[in-house]
Amino acid sequence: MTVAVVVPTYNEAEVLPEFVHQLFSLSIPDLQLIVVDDSSPDGTGKLAESLSINHGGNIKVLHRRGKLGLGTAYVQGFQYALKQGADYIIQMDADLSHSPEYIPAFLQELKKVEVVIGSRYVPGGGLDKKWGMRRRALSYLGNLYIRLASGIKVKDATSGFKGFRSYVLSSLDWSKFKCKGFAFQAEMAYACERKKFRIDEYGITFAERASGRSKISINIVIEALWRFLPLRWSRKSG
Ligand SMILES: Nc1nc2c(ncn2[C@@H]2O[C@H](COP(=O)(O)OP(=O)(O)OP(=O)(O)O)[C@@H](O)[C@H]2O)c(=O)[nH]1
Ligand SMILES: [Mg+2]
Prior knowledge:
By secondary structure, the protein is α/β, with parallel strands linked by helices. Helices cover 40% and strands 17% of the residues.
């Protein structure tokens, strides 16, 4: 059983060494980390290369020519993982909002289901205590909007912490994915539901990023609002 963890990075040099340390401390056999870096100005790509040397080649770094968005970064990482013959593929953020400690539980879940989603909105899940009311409300309402607009059932559609049996990812038509930002996560949830894969939401606590800056911009929020409105109708029509 081989496991690939795909992580997109943009300016995560401050946290990447700790993320790598926590990930490889899990001692999961045949674990490969795939970092997809968009020429981060803070040198994350170079740093990832040097971490790779220290980890005997179990880290592959894909370098892209500029900030092309996390959606396409994930697709590129998934395609690389599939080419390497990974059996299970995990996607997560590099900033330690997603604790690597959940990965063994995800792999356990993937024996029963085909997709596992790390969820803040099921029992056992939650948000960092540091999050204020405004941010909590935004996250909750954003998810509610996506559920109502698209008709999907997943409660944490915008979660970027997921695990897949690899055939799930090889069955998806990437040309249908339009979003560059976090709405890509909801497109993934939508695609997996449409294909009727068995999905489980596993409760996780989403921690505040360990350091560095958020890459969420107003454009990314507008992208999510815009993309999900017509999906309910396209769902009805086919
Ligand atoms: N390669 C690549 N990675 C990106 C890009 N935008 C964001 N990322 C990475 O995607 C992950 C999620 O981005 P974040 O900015 O942490 O988004 P978030 O977790 O929704 O927001 P915060 O809670 O504020 O951190 C992180 O590992 C980022 O470094 C991008 O354009 N290209
Ligand atoms: Mg984050």
